[in-house]
Design brief:
The protein is mainly α. Helices cover 72% and strands 0% of the residues. It holds the Pfam family TPR_12.
Length: 279
């Protein structure tokens, strides 16, 4: 009984470490003005673009602020315009303003109660705000069984991972990959699913594939750097991170990773458990 309790406590502390590490780009984010972070098991954001054609996820903090301000003014003028509202909610979410993003999507879902695209975006906004059961319901209502959308399958999987149902989540990721082979966002979610269950070697396999896949963004590649660093290969993790960040920012991220692992006594136990699983 004590062993089970200890293991559960270690698992809980590991999850806390991942949450803390999810904020570590954070170190880089403070330097660059970016507010995005390493994504750990979250619902992937759509690769929406602003009117100029640039991806929101590639913008700096000041650029995101300017985009949110501009789109926000258009939204105020016509809050029932679906395209404007979706863009506004997306840029708010990428900026870290999840509560505001969810408020925009709640209103839009009322105006478009049967629209699949709106329901899908609403589900993602709910998940980003931690409202997982309502998010799961919204995403499932948006799906059509006879013509499944791979994005919705992946979104549903990410929510199930956060609800502690990794087997069901991975089945959905694989269905999504059958429809959209080698899709970076789905491979990344699959890798994070294994990471959350402390299977670091499997996580690395899928995160490496995700990082090398067409369309992989900076957050996907930083997830890959994270899982490499979690296995103690700090030099390699720094090299991977340096492809996305400046050398100084990559060094700061790895230093933060080292300190987090050093401070968390459960890490050695988790690492030992992982070795035992591998025989």
């Amino acid at each position: 009984m004590r062993k089970t309790t200890t293991t559960k406590a270690a698992q809980g502390r590991f999850a806390q470490v991942l949450v803390a590490l999810a904020l570590t780009a954070v170190v880089a984010g403070c330097s660059t003005g970016r507010r995005d972070h390493i994504t750990t098991g979250s619902v992937s954001q759509a690769r929406a673009a602003n009117p100029s054609g640039n991806s929101f996820s590639s913008m700096s903090g000041p650029q995101l602020d300017a985009a949110a301000d501009s789109i926000g003014k258009a939204y105020v003028r016509d809050p029932k315009n679906k395209g404007t509202a979706l863009q506004y909610a997306n840029v708010l979410q990428i900026s870290g303003r999840t509560d505001q993003s969810l408020a925009v999507m709640r209103k839009l879902a009322i105006d478009y109660p049967k629209d699949r695209e709106v329901l899908a975006a609403y589900g993602k906004a709910l998940a980003a705000s931690g409202e997982l059961e309502p998010a799961l319901d919204a995403v499932r209502r948006a799906q059509t069984p006879e013509y499944p959308d791979w994005r919705l399958l992946s979104a549903e999987g990410a929510i199930l991972d956060q609800l502690g149902q990794p087997d069901q989540a991975r089945a959905l990721y694989r269905r999504a990959l059958d429809i959209q082979p080698n899709e970076a966002s789905v491979l990344s979610n699959l890798g994070i699913s294994y990471l959350l269950q402390r299977d670091l070697q499997s996580a690395e396999v899928y995160l490496k594939q995700a990082a090398e896949a067409p369309g992989a963004d900076s957050r996907v590649r930083q997830n890959y750097a994270l899982v490499v660093g979690l296995q103690g290969r700090f030099g390699e993790a720094e090299q991977i991170a340096a492809r996305e960040l400046t050398r100084e920012q990559a060094q700061a991220n790895v230093a933060y990773l080292r300190s987090m692992l050093a401070q968390n006594n459960s890490w050695s136990q988790i690492a030992q458990e992982d070795k035992k699983k591998r025989g």
